[in-house]
Amino acid sequence: MKYLRKVLTVTAKDLRIEARSHDRVPSMVVFSLIVIVIFNFTFEPGLENRASFAPGILLVAFSFAGLLGLSRSFALEREHEAIQGLLLAPIDRSALYLGKMLSNFIFLIIIMIFSLAALGFFFNIGIFPLMHRIWAILGLTVLGFVAVGTLYAAMATNIRLREILLPILFFPIIVPIIIAAVKALDGVFLGQKLAQVGSWLKLLVAYDVIFIIIGILTFEYVISE
User: Fold this and answer.
1) How many CB atoms lie within 10 A of CB 112?
2) Where along the chain do its domains lie?
3) Per the count of CB atoms within 10 A, which of 5, 28, 91, 115 is most buried?
4) Predicted local distance difference test score (pLDDT) of residue 7
5) pLDDT tens-digit map of 177-186
6) How far apart are CA 61 and CA 42, in angstroms?
């Protein structure tokens, strides 16, 4: 219980900072909506197969907006030298990782909600009847995204060209989860049940578990460098 309390304390700190500063979520929402609107105007009105492009567009918009938010994950601690305070606090490094990961998960779920709503509106897709299937896929996708992203954001904290290097390091690792999410969503949009896209869901689950374990085991060394 003490360990969980420490995790939630780190998460609550990030949520309070965001509630006061509005530093990340608004910019991510705007960025995601702009990407979806741009894609909307690349297709002719009434094009029958527009829905087939929807999963890819959703994940592209989410990925770039999410990376924008993840790059700011340790920004305040770095800018105000508060990262040393976190490291000196009597808290296990894995709890710090999980707390940061949970706050990033909450932020990115908010972005995914706005992105999904915008996608359904602009591409005229009936999302609500499929919502229970869609969120099973998107929840696993966001979890894997933040599991890797939180670790890499911590790794890039002390790198001088972090804004350039973070996407270069991050996107090759995240490609499998993006492909699995696109394939699973494509099947759901075509009317398939979750059992019919089960192989892609298993890949998402395996990816999430592996990288959460890697993050827990390596975060102490990554953040201390």
Assistant:
1) 24
2) 2-224
3) 115
4) 87
5) 999 999 999 8
6) 15
